[in-house]
Amino acid sequence: MLSLRRAEPADSDRMFTWRNLPHVAVHQYSDHVISREEHDAWFARAIADPRRIYWIIQDDGDPIGLANLVDIDEKNSKCSWAFYLGAGDLRGKGIGSWVELKVLDHVFLELKLNKLCCEVLTSNPGVVRMHRRFGFQEEGLLRHHVRKQGQFLDAHVLGLLRDDYLQQRDALVTMLRERGVQAE
């Protein structure tokens, strides 16, 4: 059974390991091995920042990944999000789709924000397709936005509005159930 729980200080070591895994790091903006000191400073800021929420993705209670909201802006009713799975062999099993539905529900049904944004490197087309399946619209392309391994990469800017999500939520739940993903 999949679940989300809030990240806590005891998760710092696990997150440090995950952030440096090659299959996770390849899709992040950073292009270096994250040092312990760098991670510890980031983690302290991240957990203390009220404009961020970090969840540990769990499968039958076992931590398998991270989902987060950043730049929560109540005045403008928006935030951004991202997620990753710690084990590469978990991709393609519907876990990302489950996480996406749960995060969208939190943003639009609990926080009642108007917009959810994300940026995805063009080198990660599977995640772009997944976001589009959930109703995200392409809002722009950030050209040469990130330098990784000496090459500049572009990033998609995607956004989803609350009204658009609410209109299609039932269809998304049905789609996930048909794919064998526990949607609620």
TrEMBL record:
Signal peptide start and end residues: none
Domain N-acetyltransferase as annotated: residue spans: 2-164
SUPFAM superfamilies: Acyl-CoA N-acyltransferases (Nat)
Name the record gives this protein: UDP-4-amino-4, 6-dideoxy-N-acetyl-beta-L-altrosamine N-acetyltransferase
Alphabetical list of Gene3D superfamilies matching this protein: 3.40.630.30
Domain of life the protein comes from: Bacteria
Record PANTHER family: GNAT-FAMILY ACETYLTRANSFERASE, SPERMIDINE N(1)-ACETYLTRANSFERASE
InterPro entries in the record: Acyl_CoA_acyltransferase (IPR016181), GNAT_dom (IPR000182), PseH (IPR020036)
